[in-house]
Design goal:
Strand content: 5-15%
Order of helices and strands: EEEHHHHHHHHHH
Structural class: mainly alpha
Number of helices: 10
Shape: elongated
Largest sheet: 3 strands, antiparallel
Strand order of the largest sheet: 1-2-3
Distance between the termini: 18 Å
């Protein structure tokens, strides 16, 4: 599709596969959804052709689950089996957050390669090239959560919440990954290079992960550190995942987790979209 010339404020003239046509200058909501799905499909095809991009959600859950359970299980809970209900939900939160880092890095790489320069000439919604890859990344978060639960079950974890509790925990983990990815998408739009975006993202990702209740109870932390860990969005999500997977209960932690994710999206989604719009 090639843009030829604008006609009036409401339409642009473009050459399409069906010939020269007048297209809306501002895509409708239906068109925006369709274009976002197309961009998501493009991102999925990229994953298929570059499978090494999936290592953080395929190999990492297997290694981290086996290592962390064996290393910290005896020291924190007395034995590995008692530690699994704590560490498995914690590792799901940690793995999903790590996977979010790739969102901003890959976005910055596409912008540096000039891919988005081609999108500028197309009469498509400006949000579609940003929202599409983030929609496709939900598949990565799903894979990470499923593999972590599967590895935990293989080494002795028995979720008390049953199938429904585990499914609820997986859904929450995927939604958390999509919500937290807006932080790193914003980094991708403001960073000057993919390496710089990765460095900034890791500086944020590590405190959010390790200054949480992912690996140890927050009660063992100093008061000031516990205060931060208790309001950390990652802690809220992990507590909710534990309640769902271990007890099959929809507790107040689930509500606080959802509220925390809504706040993250409300703050960082507009920042990312505005910064991205300026680059487009």
């Amino acid at each position: 599709m090639t843009l030829l010339s604008p006609t009036v404020d409401e339409t642009v003239t473009a050459r399409t596969l069906d010939g020269v046509r007048d297209l809306p200058a501002r895509p409708s909501l239906r068109d925006t959804v369709s274009q976002t799905r197309t961009m998501a499909w493009r991102a999925v095809k990229k994953m298929q052709r570059n499978f090494e991009q999936m290592f953080d959600v395929t190999i990492q859950p297997l290694l981290f689950t086996a290592m962390f359970a064996g290393i910290f299980g005896g020291a924190i809970s007395g034995d590995v089996s008692s530690y699994l209900p704590i560490i498995i939900p914690g590792l799901i939160g940690q793995t999903v957050l790590t996977a979010c880092v790739a969102t901003g890095v890959q976005l910055r790489e596409d912008m540096d390669k000039g891919v988005f320069d081609r999108f500028k000439s197309l009469p498509i919604a400006r949000i579609a090239p940003l929202a599409g890859p983030m929609l496709a990344d939900m598949l990565r978060y799903l894979l990470a959560a499923v593999l972590t639960f599967g590895t935990g079950i293989a080494i002795g974890y028995r979720p008390g919440g049953g199938v429904l509790g585990v499914l609820g925990a997986i859904v929450l983990a995927v939604l958390a990954g999509w919500s937290l990815a807006w932080i790193f998408a914003w980094f991708g739009t403001v960073g000057r290079s993919a390496q710089g975006v990765q460095g900034i993202s890791l500086m944020v990702m590590f405190p959010l992960t390790f200054l949480s209740n992912a690996f140890v109870p927050t009660e063992t932390m100093p008061g000031w550190l516990q205060a931060f860990a208790d309001v950390n969005p990652v802690s809220l999500v992990i507590s909710a995942i534990r309640d769902l997977a271990n007890d099959g209960a929809v507790t107040a932690n689930v509500g606080w987790a959802v509220l925390g994710l809504v706040v993250v999206v409300a703050v960082f989604a507009p920042l990312a979209v505005r910064s991205y719009g300026r680059k487009m």
